[in-house]
Protein backbone atom coordinates (compact mmCIF):
# COMPACT_ATOMS: atom_id res chain seq x y z
CA UNK A 1 0.00 0.00 0.00
CA UNK A 2 3.07 2.21 0.17
CA UNK A 3 2.80 3.93 -3.23
CA UNK A 4 -0.90 4.77 -2.69
CA UNK A 5 -0.09 6.44 0.61
CA UNK A 6 2.69 8.39 -1.02
CA UNK A 7 0.49 9.38 -3.93
CA UNK A 8 -2.45 10.52 -1.82
CA UNK A 9 -0.77 11.61 1.40
CA UNK A 10 2.74 12.63 0.30
CA UNK A 11 5.21 12.88 3.21
CA UNK A 12 2.59 11.74 5.70
CA UNK A 13 2.10 8.56 3.64
CA UNK A 14 5.85 7.97 3.58
CA UNK A 15 6.03 8.43 7.35
CA UNK A 16 3.21 5.92 7.85
CA UNK A 17 5.06 3.40 5.63
CA UNK A 18 8.22 3.94 7.68
CA UNK A 19 6.31 3.39 10.95
CA UNK A 20 4.84 0.16 9.56
CA UNK A 21 8.31 -1.01 8.55
CA UNK A 22 9.75 -0.07 11.98
CA UNK A 23 6.98 -2.03 13.75
CA UNK A 24 7.66 -5.06 11.54
CA UNK A 25 11.42 -4.79 12.19
CA UNK A 26 10.80 -4.63 15.95
CA UNK A 27 8.48 -7.68 15.76
CA UNK A 28 11.13 -9.65 13.87
CA UNK A 29 13.82 -8.59 16.39
CA UNK A 30 11.68 -9.76 19.32
CA UNK A 31 10.99 -13.09 17.61
CA UNK A 32 14.70 -13.47 16.86
CA UNK A 33 15.59 -12.68 20.48
CA UNK A 34 13.08 -15.24 21.77
CA UNK A 35 14.42 -17.84 19.36
CA UNK A 36 18.00 -17.19 20.50
CA UNK A 37 16.94 -17.44 24.12
CA UNK A 38 15.19 -20.76 23.51
CA UNK A 39 18.17 -22.10 21.57
CA UNK A 40 20.55 -21.06 24.33
CA UNK A 41 18.35 -22.69 26.94
CA UNK A 42 18.05 -25.87 24.86
CA UNK A 43 21.81 -25.99 24.34
CA UNK A 44 22.39 -25.66 28.07
CA UNK A 45 19.89 -28.43 28.74
CA UNK A 46 21.54 -30.71 26.18
CA UNK A 47 24.99 -29.99 27.66
CA UNK A 48 23.66 -30.79 31.13
CA UNK A 49 22.10 -34.05 29.96
CA UNK A 50 25.30 -35.08 28.18
CA UNK A 51 27.28 -34.41 31.35
CA UNK A 52 24.80 -36.45 33.40
CA UNK A 53 24.95 -39.37 30.95
CA UNK A 54 28.75 -39.28 31.07
CA UNK A 55 28.66 -39.29 34.89
CA UNK A 56 26.22 -42.21 34.96
CA UNK A 57 28.34 -44.18 32.48
CA UNK A 58 31.43 -43.62 34.63
CA UNK A 59 29.56 -44.73 37.75
CA UNK A 60 28.24 -47.80 35.93
CA UNK A 61 31.73 -48.75 34.75
CA UNK A 62 33.10 -48.38 38.30
CA UNK A 63 30.29 -50.58 39.63
CA UNK A 64 30.96 -53.23 36.97
CA UNK A 65 34.63 -53.24 37.91
CA UNK A 66 33.86 -53.50 41.64
CA UNK A 67 31.38 -56.35 41.10
CA UNK A 68 33.78 -58.22 38.82
CA UNK A 69 36.66 -57.80 41.28
CA UNK A 70 34.53 -58.84 44.25
CA UNK A 71 33.15 -61.87 42.41
CA UNK A 72 36.60 -63.03 41.34
CA UNK A 73 37.97 -62.49 44.85
CA UNK A 74 35.17 -64.49 46.47
CA UNK A 75 35.58 -67.36 43.98
CA UNK A 76 39.41 -67.39 44.04
CA UNK A 77 39.49 -67.32 47.85
CA UNK A 78 36.96 -70.18 47.79
CA UNK A 79 34.56 -68.16 49.92
CA UNK A 80 31.86 -68.78 47.31
CA UNK A 81 31.53 -71.71 44.93
CA UNK A 82 31.41 -70.39 41.34
CA UNK A 83 28.67 -72.84 40.27
CA UNK A 84 26.49 -71.91 43.26
CA UNK A 85 27.05 -68.21 42.57
CA UNK A 86 26.04 -68.65 38.91
CA UNK A 87 22.92 -70.56 39.98
CA UNK A 88 22.09 -67.85 42.51
CA UNK A 89 22.48 -65.11 39.89
CA UNK A 90 20.07 -66.95 37.58
CA UNK A 91 17.63 -67.39 40.51
CA UNK A 92 17.72 -63.67 41.23
CA UNK A 93 17.30 -62.93 37.53
CA UNK A 94 14.19 -65.13 37.47
CA UNK A 95 12.57 -63.18 40.33
CA UNK A 96 11.03 -60.69 37.91
CA UNK A 97 9.49 -63.54 35.91
CA UNK A 98 11.96 -63.50 33.00
CA UNK A 99 15.46 -64.96 32.79
CA UNK A 100 17.02 -62.30 30.58
CA UNK A 101 20.12 -61.04 32.39
CA UNK A 102 18.38 -58.02 33.94
CA UNK A 103 15.76 -57.13 36.53
CA UNK A 104 12.53 -55.38 35.59
CA UNK A 105 11.87 -51.91 36.98
CA UNK A 106 8.34 -51.05 38.10
CA UNK A 107 7.40 -47.90 36.11
CA UNK A 108 5.06 -46.67 38.87
CA UNK A 109 7.70 -46.39 41.60
CA UNK A 110 11.08 -46.93 39.86
CA UNK A 111 11.94 -49.90 42.08
CA UNK A 112 12.78 -53.47 41.16
CA UNK A 113 9.70 -55.39 40.14
CA UNK A 114 9.92 -58.68 41.99
CA UNK A 115 7.32 -61.40 42.09
CA UNK A 116 6.12 -61.90 45.67
CA UNK A 117 5.20 -65.53 44.98
CA UNK A 118 8.01 -67.99 45.70
CA UNK A 119 9.32 -70.05 42.77
CA UNK A 120 7.25 -73.19 42.28
CA UNK A 121 9.09 -75.21 39.64
CA UNK A 122 12.76 -75.85 38.91
CA UNK A 123 14.25 -76.55 35.51
CA UNK A 124 17.59 -76.45 33.68
CA UNK A 125 18.49 -73.45 31.48
CA UNK A 126 21.85 -73.31 29.66
CA UNK A 127 23.40 -75.55 32.24
CA UNK A 128 21.95 -73.64 35.21
CA UNK A 129 19.22 -74.69 37.58
CA UNK A 130 16.44 -72.08 37.58
CA UNK A 131 13.12 -71.73 39.32
CA UNK A 132 10.08 -70.96 37.20
CA UNK A 133 7.54 -68.52 38.61
CA UNK A 134 3.90 -69.16 37.86
Residue share in helix: 55-70%
- Assembly state: single chain
The mean pLDDT is 79
What is the total tally of β strands? 2
Radius of gyration using CA atoms only: 34 Å
Shape: rod-shaped
Class per helix and strand makeup? mainly alpha
Strand content: 5-15%
Any key phrases for this structure?
single chain; mainly alpha; 65% helix; 3 helices; 2 strands; 134 residues
Report on this model:
It is rod-shaped and about 100 Å long. A two-stranded antiparallel sheet has the order 1-2. With 134 residues, it is mainly alpha-helical. The model has no long low-confidence stretch (mean pLDDT 79). It has a domain at 81-134. Strand 1 and strand 2 form a beta hairpin. It has helices spanning 2-9, 11-76, 82-94, and strands spanning 121-125, 128-132. It has three helices and two strands; from the N terminus they run αααββ. The longest helix is centred in the N-terminal third of the chain and has 66 residues, at 11-76. Helix content is 65%, strand content 7%.
Short account of what is shown:
This protein has 134 residues and is mostly helical. The protein is 65% helix and 7% strand. It has a domain of 54 residues.
Q: Topology, pairings included?
A:
Layout: H1 2-9, H2 11-76, H3 82-94, E1 121-125, E2 128-132
Antiparallel strand pairs: 1-2
Helix pairs in contact: 1-2
Amino acid sequence: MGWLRTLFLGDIGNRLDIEDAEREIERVRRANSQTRSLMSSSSATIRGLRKEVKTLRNESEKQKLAIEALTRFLVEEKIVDQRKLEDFIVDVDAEDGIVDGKLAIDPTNGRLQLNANPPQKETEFKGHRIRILR
